[in-house]
Design a protein that fits this description.
This protein is mainly α. The chain folds into two domains: 129 residues, no CATH class; 283 residues, no CATH class. The protein contains 18 helices and no strands. The termini are far apart.
């Protein structure tokens, strides 16, 4: 392993910090639980950094000496010490293996740092600390799941790990049907099911209102349409949480606008100067309305969230996947028949299916190698985003309860009205 001295200091320093982070959490958890004065913590704020540095040191030494046996020896030695310590502690009190496993992970993190996998080591360290800190929440969630939830999770694993990899990744048939790719359509089905489960977990862990809000924000990064479909369906399980579900939907729409700005900035930064203001205005309208829904009173209670049924519903998700495929075909046909002369019509139809597609295509066509004017491309993107919002609002009206329709109508009207007004200023 060849590395400069400053680089080695960075690697070992990172190992030290990650070990200290995990050790501090273990120390804090030990103090929080309360223990007799004569009982000591197995490993804390000093031991974990030392374990991490031990892993980094022997990883470096084994590479320098070209003797992997050194690394195997230290891993075996640490494992034996932890096993003996656990045995002694288990004789005195009922204890688990959490701290011991965390120590082994810390040892591995130290090795990764020495091998210059600093980003991976940091991610493992943070993930480990979060899992250790969420003991109460994860135990509470485990108590709320039932047999149906377990079977639903297994079904989700099957459609993700078994069915998805074997699907074709290319379209079949003549245009415009060649745009339908089985892999991409099934990916939408998985996305909808996964977002449903994400919302279910967050609601059970952090509460209904905050859980739904986080679902909207995180899910909107992947697919605001899938979030809309998922939360509209969930509103039937807990009608009293209509405002919270509406807030999650509007937040997902708002995150979509942020994604549009990022895509334009990556492909054509000059277009961002034109389209940035109207998209930011639409985003501001969504944030303001979501804030209003958050501060408004909610008729439902946290008990409504615990009564929510199985989060996996494949039939509606598959139905939406088929609808998504039909919209793709219709959009491709419109682009074929209208061409450049019908660019606004194309953006309207494309926005119904996927706002990312029209955003990226307009960003490319308005670039140095394209022949579309910047103002025309900006208007097309705004039209596509507004059309996508209209479609998602229609999904809520079709699948949601009556109690979610009124608050969604307000958010949809605010965003679309803002888009209509900003088009004239482009």
């Amino acid at each position: 392993m060849e590395a400069s001295l400053p680089d080695l200091f960075l690697r070992f320093g990172t190992a030290l910090v990650i070990g200290l982070l995990i050790g501090l959490q273990r120390e804090y958890a030990f103090q929080e639980r309360g223990h007799p004065d004569n009982q000591e913590l197995l490993a804390g704020a000093r031991t974990f950094p030392l374990i991490s540095l031990l892993g980094a040191s022997f990883a470096l030494l084994s590479d320098l000496a070209q003797a992997p046996v050194l690394l195997g020896t230290v891993v075996a030695g640490v494992a034996i010490l932890l096993g003996v310590a656990h045995y002694q502690e288990a004789k005195a009190t009922n204890t688990g293996l959490t701290t011991e496993i965390a120590a082994l992970v810390t040892l591995a993190v130290g090795m990764l740092c020495a091998w210059d996998y600093i980003e991976l080591a940091a991610a493992l360290g943070v993930a480990t600390t979060v899992l250790l800190a969420l003991k109460v929440q994860t135990e509470s969630f485990a108590e709320t799941i039932d047999r149906d939830d377990v079977f639903a999770t297994l079904k989700f694993a099957v459609i993700t790990a078994v069915i998805l990899p074997i699907l074709p990744r290319q379209g079949y048939g003549p245009a415009p049907f060649d745009v339908v790719v089985p892999y991409n359509v099934w990916l939408i089905v998985i996305l909808i099911s996964g977002i449903s489960f994400l919302g279910y977990v967050l609601i059970q862990v952090v509460g209904a209102r905050r859980g739904v809000g986080l679902t909207g924000i995180l899910g909107g990064l992947a697919s605001s349409t899938a979030v809309t479909l998922s939360l509209a369906q969930r509103s039937r399980d807990a009608p009293g949480l209509a405002r919270s579900f509406s807030m999650g939907v509007v937040l997902a729409w708002t995150i979509m606008f942020l994604r549009v700005l990022v895509e334009v900035a990556v492909v054509n930064v000059s277009l961002l100067r034109v389209v940035g203001v109207p998209i930011l205005a639409m985003m501001a309208a969504g944030i303001a309305y979501a804030a209003y829904l958050y501060t408004a009173g909610e008729a439902g209670t946290e008990a409504d969230a615990t009564e929510m049924t199985n989060p996996f519903r494949l039939t509606p998700a598959i139905t939406f996947g088929l609808l998504y495929a039909l919209i793709l075909v219709a959009t491709n046909a419109a682009q074929t028949y209208f061409g450049d002369a019908g660019i606004y019509v194309t953006s309207l139809l494309s926005g119904l299916a996927d706002v990312d597609a029209i955003t990226l295509s307009m960003a490319r066509l308005s670039g140095p190698a394209g022949d579309v004017e910047t103002q025309t491309a900006a208007r097309a993107i705004v039209i596509g985003a507004a059309a996508n919002t209209l479609l998602k609002g229609s999904i809520v009206f079709a699948l949601g309860t009556k109690r979610i329709r009124r608050p969604i109508l307000g958010g949809m009207a605010a965003i679309i009205a803002t888009a209509a007004g900003m088009i004239w200023f482009i």
